[in-house]
């Protein structure tokens, strides 16, 4: 699939079949995350692939979105904050590192014909307890992974001229 088509086709999926996803596809998807750029190439992001039904159901309680318990797989994106860096203003970049990796995963899954849904609202302590994640590690995002049971409708998006300026803030751009 053309890269632009992958971006256009990506949607948030919340209903999945229970069809098995090959380890080859899962590896390709995680490989996309692994290859994502990180602060000073520190590569501090880790991934947990959860297929166990009882763990997924327990995690759904921490996610507080009942539909997640029906996902065939949940991918958890984690990072130790000290395995990243800070910018000149002191802004820590560990969440940025993890977010870039997560987006690579979501796009790679779309390219493989699989659905995902970026989840950022969850009880981090419940997820950490369920998956035995060390205290120093932060859980940044989760996504279900599976074959979608439907095609989500296209969401309305702002036009480029509503979000992009030329040279300085407020100078409307014309393409």
TrEMBL record:
Gene3D superfamilies: NADH Oxidase (3.40.109.10). GO terms for molecular function: oxidoreductase activity. Its cofactor is FMN. Residues 62-147 form the Nitroreductase domain. It comes from Promethearchaeum syntrophicum. SUPFAM superfamilies: FMN-dependent nitroreductase-like. This is Nitroreductase family protein. The lineage of its organism: Archaea, Promethearchaeati, Promethearchaeota, Promethearchaeia, Promethearchaeales. Belongs to the nitroreductase family. Keywords: Flavoprotein, FMN, Oxidoreductase.
